[in-house]
Amino acid sequence: MEIVFVLVYIPLCFIAGTIAKLKGRSDIGFFFLALGLSPLVGILAALVSESDIEHVEARQISLQRQKRCLSCAELVKFHANVCKYCGNTLSPPVLPASAWGSSTKKTT
Ligand SMILES: [Zn+2]
Predict the structure, then answer these.
(1) Which long-range contacts (CB under 8 A, 24 or more apart) does 12-18 make?
(2) 95 or 37: whose pLDDT is higher?
(3) Gyration radius from the chain CA atoms
(4) CA 87 / ligand 1 centre spacing (Å)
(5) Whole-number Å distance between alpha carbons of 23 and 21
(6) 24-81 pLDDT, tens per residue?
(7) How far apart are CA 9 and CA 61, in angstroms?
């Protein structure tokens, strides 16, 4: 019985936490909700909970998957040159010097 608990119950609780985290909610909170009540309850609660849009957007920006258009404030892909919402020309992303490789010439 304990092996079923470890192999099925706990991973289902992690799934509830993961769903909640993807929606910008507390993964630990939903994990323990699922652990305490039932994984089914935890997963359903995570699925029906509203997304924390600000948290999800901040995460996308911090991971450099998206950036905010300065003209219309919508999120667009990080490497986009033109905003798909307003057509504003976006500044190219500032990459660290290491991202350009070693082929760049050094100016002295
Ligand atoms: Zn825009």
Answers:
(1) 12/39, 12/40, 12/42, 12/43, 13/39, 13/42, 15/39, 15/43, 16/42, 16/43, 16/45, 16/46, 17/42, 17/46
(2) 37
(3) 21
(4) 6
(5) 5
(6) 899 999 999 999 999 999 999 999 999 888 888 998 999 999 999 999 999 999 999 9
(7) 34
Q: For residue 99, what pLDDT is reported?
A: 57
Domain boundaries, the chain: 2-51, 55-94
Distance CA 103, CA 65 (A): 26
CB neighbour list of residue 45: distance below 8 Å, 6 or more residues apart = 16, 30, 33, 34
Q: How far is the CA of 12 from the centre of ligand 1 (A)?
A: 40
Cα-to-centroid distance, 44 and ligand 1 (Å):
35
Pair of tokens at residue 2:
């304990």
49 alpha carbon to ligand 1 midpoint, in Å?
29
Rounded to a whole number of angstroms, the distance between the first and last alpha carbons of the chain is 71
